[in-house]
Structures are given as C-alpha cells and as structure tokens.
Amino acid sequence: MDAERLAALLDAVARGDVTPIEAGEFISRLPVSDLDFARIDTHRELRTGLPEVIYCPGKTPAQVRSIAIAMLADPGGALVATRADPEHFAAVHDLSDGMRYDEIGRTIVLRAASGAPLGLVAVVTAGTADLPVAHEAMAVAEALGAKVVRIADIGVAGLHRTLAAQSDLRAADVLIVVAGMEGALPSVIAGLVSSPVIAVPTSVGYGASFGGLAALLAMLNSCAPGIAVVNIDNGFGAAALAARILKMKS
C-alpha cells in the first residue's frame, strides 16, 4: 500500500464503486500481515515510499513463497527478493508473469514499479569481481522505478578507463559506485561529477582488505565531498537510497 493506491481506494469509495465496508475490510489488513513466522509490513511503502523487500538468507523456499504470495495480494508497487538462491526462485517462479531472476546478483524481481522512470542511475564497478554486488543494486533500482545503466571495470588501476567514461558518468542523476580492494573509485568519480555518489565497498580483495573493511574505511575517509557510503556488499541499500533521492527530485 502506498499513497497513490490509498488515494485510489478513497476515490473509489467516493464514486460508489467500493463500499465503505469493503474499504474498511481492506484497510483493516494494514499495517501488518501476520504469517506466524513473519510479520509483513504492508504500510512501509505508504510511510517511507519504499516497499518491504524479502531477504532470503535464513528463510526456507516455502517461507519465501508464503511471504511472496501475501505480498502479491496487495496490488501495485515493486516486489523484490534479495540474496536468493535458485531454490528460492524455483519456489516462487510460478506466482507472477514477467518475474525474473538475476543469477549474478542473486535477486528475484517478482513485480516492478510501473510508470515513467524516476531518473537515471549509473551503477559503476571498479572491477569485474564487483559485479555480483552491482547486479543486486541494478535489479533493485530498476524494480523501484529507475532507469539503470551499467559501467563496468573502470577502476583506478587504469585511470584512463575512468576518464574515458566521463560523459556517461555525468549523464546520470545518481551514481552507485561499487569497489573493493582499496576502495578509491568513489572518490575519483565524486571529483568528476555533480550528481550524488553512493559508494558501496565490497569484500573483494586480498587479506589486508579485511573482507571489505579497508574499502569501507577508505570511502568513509574520502576527501571528495558528496559521497554517501553504505555497508559492505550492500547493493540493495545503495539502490534504496538512490530511489529515495530520485523520488525527491521527481
């Protein structure tokens, strides 16, 4: 449930297409759908502008299916599952037309937002090894209503690659920059563009990268202004932030 669908429901009541009792029954299911093992926050999109997302690790395929069925019962809005294994996808693939599974980003999009794109998000990777996190960000950002372009493998080990992509970088309304190792790419890009930069440290790197901690600290200590930093490998969080920025601009 979001503000647009709530307004449509109230308009239907005013026209007489829906009775007050029917509307009251629908609203009575809000703000929580209790499945015993999960309590689905059906008011989240109405409150925050972003829907609840299914985080698959720790959930059985049967649990993911039950949650998806309950969420699909509410029309409209995006419906996404992250960190999903093929077994999770097999459990839900028959529930919705047009559903897609990104094996690289381990993301299931059961239903994408409709309407004109909110804006353009560029998802940029320092290296090919950062693609799984980038693909998670891409799938979620697209499902939430953004137009997405991918700019891959332009890390600072070959700075000419970064500079060669400047036109594409500057065309984006928001940039999600995904990097491991020393995590320097967001600082470089933030010095080239005027749009917001969301930095995503990844756990890519040798021992002294400490599973992405070195990249995280480098991004937090960037001397380039205008950078927001999300958690290690958190492509979903970066996409959610990008969608919020675009919603404010639209």
Structure in words:
The mean pLDDT is about 90. Helix 4 (about 60-70) crosses helix 5 (about 85-90) and helix 6 (about 130-145) packs parallel to helix 11 (about 235-250). About 40% of the residues lie in helices and about 20% in strands. About 40% of the residues are buried. It has helices at about 5-15, 20-30, 45-50, 60-70, 85-90, 130-145, 160-165, 165-170, 185-190, 215-220, 235-250; strands at about 30-35, 40, 55, 80, 100, 105-110, 120-125, 145-150, 175-180, 195-200, 225-230. It has a five-stranded parallel sheet. The protein folds into three domains: about 1-25, no CATH class; about 50-115; about 120-250, 3-Layer(aba) Sandwich (Rossmann fold), CATH 3.40.50. The longest helix is centred in the last third of the chain and has 15 residues, at about 235-250. It has eleven helices and eleven strands. It is of the alpha/beta class and about 250 residues long. It is globular.
Q: What best-fitting shape do the alpha-carbon axes yield?
A: globular
Kindly provide the name of the CATH class of the largest domain.
Alpha Beta
What is the chains' assembly state?
A: single chain
In the CATH hierarchy, the third-tier topology of the largest domain is known as: Rossmann fold
Strand order of the largest sheet: 8-7-9-10-11
Strand segment tally: 11
Helix content: 40-55%
Termini separation: 20 Å
- How many domains in all? 3
Mind telling me the C-alpha Rg?
Answer: 20 Å
Q: Helix- and strand-based class?
A: alpha/beta
Largest sheet composition: 5 strands, parallel
How many alpha or pi helices? 11
Strand content: 15-25%
Order of helices and strands: HHEEHEHEHEEEHEHHEHEHEH
CATH architecture of the largest domain, by name, is 3-Layer(aba) Sandwich
pLDDT below 50 for ≥5 consecutive residues: which ranges?
none
